[in-house]
């Protein structure tokens, strides 16, 4: 951890939306009178019927209820498109950069975005989708992904995006979990020069779904696919559809989307975000955190399968009338200069990516960056996991040439938008710290055992948030009780983030990582329980325990301890088979990096697996295992240490 401080330059601060004095003034106002503050900022979007109530929130266990602008009505797609047409019909809304640099980029204007979204909306309507219905989107990073999201928003349907890297099983579970009427997919997804057969994955998923679920297929590559009775050709239907579709008048608290995310136990949760508060929050943070100005070209490298893609590729920037880049490819294809070539080609001003990508690119050497003209860059952002100071410094010096403020944005699927982050013209940054809260956000650090709030400036403990903000998730889809239990029951009266955190003498926040059984692999959240249940579903596996361990590029790697069924021989072949098994059960991102054969797992006498010990062994730090006296069979630990996979 570094304590070097990087204040914004006077030049930058002078032209920024928010400078240090304004930050303090606005932050104080947002805390002293949240209703007045958010009432004012709620006006940044267009309402069909203006709200009169601003905030109606209870964090009380058993009665958790979160409402913002609840009597207002609006349409999210009209806010992201129609309201800009009078002034920016011919401005580029989306720059689409394909996987291969040899294929031409597209510049989609706000008018074209309107027409294509309406076409898609009309196609969905023709398939019988109406207000409140669920639509699963399983698409690569192509413009149709944005059209599909906005088309759902336009007709009041609720989208649930499944990351295109997820397996048929995961897709099927989400189609069934949300009782979706339609799935939107593509024939194939080109990525890094290879193609994923999305359509056949979808066919496999749909084998386990109701026959009435319809499948709308975008022709991305034109590659060969089988065609069944439930399939509809999205490309052809859109071409024939009308470019007009009136936006539905939706309530502020009508759901906009469901997005599944990993928790510490069992099945992923369907995080529900609603319309009004979410859009106010996503658009305000996009503008202020990246200091977006009229005419800027803004690029967030995330995938729309994650929340970052929802809030900071589509909804936030488009609500602001921005030009947003959408990239189909990967940072290392055709080579490690791709990100920087795209920045040069499209004259990107704000660039937002994940620490794992920076670490991977940093390892390839500076020449890939230095050969590109990055002089248009003004602000650099990171998200997804703590950024190590080495990567931060490289980003600052080699990419930003010391001229671009770095915004390390801490937030979650559940929070809808940034909760703690520097504002580039206001906040002096420290490498590795997400610095200070955004407007309206009250972070608190609690003692993990007593649950008591620590008021000293310097503090370390679990991170909770004291009051609501408009972008907060409203419930877990179909299971409000689980919502309350997960986020409001451990620490009464607070929203519990699941993260550990330290506050330094300057009041700056440093996220120390998850305090639950969630690991963060390349910025993607993974419940260790999900990987374990995939492993034990294999016929030859008796038991499995999964933990994270430090990984140079991914942040955390997946370390699995596997106990085989009696009589099964541990072989290299079986190890490969288990890796493949997890890939097909969940997806490539869940593949264990290391699998250790464990004749037994360390358990307490009551049968609880001692994960603390497994984590230590995985970290190659078994000198300090702590108290092992409560173990049922202390000898298993010696075997695990002797055969550990991560040495040094
Ligand atoms: C947006 C997103 C959320 C978890 C979160 C935390 C970690 C995200 C971070 C960060 C340190 C940052 N996280 N941003 N940790 N610094 N700037 O990533 O959402 O996929 O739900 O993950 O990611 O642990 O709790 P999500």
Automatic annotation (TrEMBL):
Pfam families given in the database record: ACAS_N (PF16177), AMP-binding (PF00501), AMP-binding_C (PF13193)
PTM remark: Acetylated. Deacetylation by the SIR2-homolog deacetylase activates the enzyme.
GO biological process terms on file: acetyl-CoA biosynthetic process from acetate
E.C. number(s) listed in UniProt: 6.2.1.1
Family that this chain belongs to: Belongs to the ATP-dependent AMP-binding enzyme family.
Functional summary from the UniProt entry: Catalyzes the conversion of acetate into acetyl-CoA (AcCoA), an essential intermediate at the junction of anabolic and catabolic pathways. AcsA undergoes a two-step reaction. In the first half reaction, AcsA combines acetate with ATP to form acetyl-adenylate (AcAMP) intermediate. In the second half reaction, it can then transfer the acetyl group from AcAMP to the sulfhydryl group of CoA, forming the product AcCoA.
Protein name, entry field: Acetyl-coenzyme A synthetase
């Amino acid at each position: 951890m570094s304590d070097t401080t990087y204040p914004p330059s006077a030049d930058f601060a002078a032209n920024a939306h928010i400078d240090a004095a304004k930050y303090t003034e606005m932050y104080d106002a947002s805390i002293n009178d949240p209703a007045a503050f958010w009432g004012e900022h709620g006006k940044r979007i267009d309402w069909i019927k203006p709200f009169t109530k601003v905030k109606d929130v209870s964090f009380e266990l058993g009665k958790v209820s979160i409402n913002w602008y609840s009597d207002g009505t609006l349409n999210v797609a009209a806010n992201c498109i129609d309201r800009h047409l009078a002034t920016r019909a011919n401005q580029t809304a989306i720059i689409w950069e394909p996987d291969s640099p040899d294929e031409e980029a597209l510049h989609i204007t706000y008018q074209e975005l309107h027409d294509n979204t309406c076409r898609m909306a009309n196609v969905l309507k023709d398939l019988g989708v109406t207000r409140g219905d669920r639509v699963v989107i399983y698409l690569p990073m192509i413009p149709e992904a944005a059209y599909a999201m906005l088309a759902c928003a336009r007709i009041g349907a609720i989208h649930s995006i499944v990351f295109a890297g997820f397996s048929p099983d995961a897709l099927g579970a989400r189609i069934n979990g949300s009782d979706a009427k339609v799935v939107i997919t593509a024939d194939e997804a080109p990525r890094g020069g290879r193609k994923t057969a999305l359509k056949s994955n979808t066919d496999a998923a749909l084998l386990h779904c109701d026959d009435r679920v319809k499948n709308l297929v975008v022709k991305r590559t034109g590659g060969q696919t089988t065609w069944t009775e439930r399939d509809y050709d999205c490309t052809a239907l859109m071409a024939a559809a009308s470019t007009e579709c009136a936006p539905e008048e939706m309530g502020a608290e009508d759901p906009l989307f469901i997005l599944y995310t990993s928790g510490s136990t069992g099945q992923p949760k369907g995080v529900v975000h609603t319309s009004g508060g979410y859009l106010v929050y996503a658009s305000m943070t996009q503008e202020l955190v990246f200091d977006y100005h009229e005419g800027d070209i803004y690029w967030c490298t995330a995938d729309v399968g994650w929340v970052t893609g929802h809030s900071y590729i589509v909804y936030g920037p488009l609500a602001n009338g921005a030009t947003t880049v959408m990239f189909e490819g990967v940072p290392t294809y055709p080579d490690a200069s791709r990100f920087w070539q795209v920045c040069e080609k499209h004259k990107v001003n704000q660039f937002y990516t994940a620490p794992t990508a920076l670490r991977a690119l940093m390892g390839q050497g500076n020449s890939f960056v230095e050969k590109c003209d990055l002089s248009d860059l003004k602000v650099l952002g990171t998200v997804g996991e703590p950024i190590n100071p080495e990567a931060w410094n490289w980003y600052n010096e080699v990419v930003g040439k010391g001229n671009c403020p770095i915004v390390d944005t801490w937030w979650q699927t559940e929070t809808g938008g940034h909760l703690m982050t520097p504002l580039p013209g206001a906040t002096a940054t420290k490498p590795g710290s997400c610095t200070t809260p955004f407007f309206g956000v009250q972070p608190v650090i609690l003692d993990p055992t007593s649950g008591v709030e620590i008021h000293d400036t310097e503090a370390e403990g679990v991170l909770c948030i004291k009051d609501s903000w408009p972008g907060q998730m409203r419930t877990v889809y179909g299971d409000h009780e689980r919502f309350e239990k997960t986020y409001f029951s451990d620490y009464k009266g607070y929203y519990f983030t699941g993260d550990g955190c330290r506050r330094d003498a300057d009041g700056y926040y440093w996220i120390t990582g998850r305090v639950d059984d969630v690991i963060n692999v390349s910025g993607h959240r993974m419940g260790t329980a999900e990987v374990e249940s995939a492993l034990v579903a294999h016929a030859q596996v008796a038991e499995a325990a999964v933990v994270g361990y430090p990984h140079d590029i991914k942040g955390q790697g997946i370390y699995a301890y596997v106990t085989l069924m009696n009589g099964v021989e541990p072989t290299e072949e079986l190890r490969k088979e288990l890796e493949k098994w997890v890939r097909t059960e969940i997806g490539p991102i869940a593949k264990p990096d290391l699998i250790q054969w464990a004749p037994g797992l360390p358990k307490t006498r009551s049968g609880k697996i001692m994960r603390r010990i497994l984590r230590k062994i995985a970290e190659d730090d078994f000198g300090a295992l702590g108290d092992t006296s409560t173990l049922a069979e202390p000898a298993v630990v010696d075997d695990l240490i002797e055969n550990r996979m991560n040495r040094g």
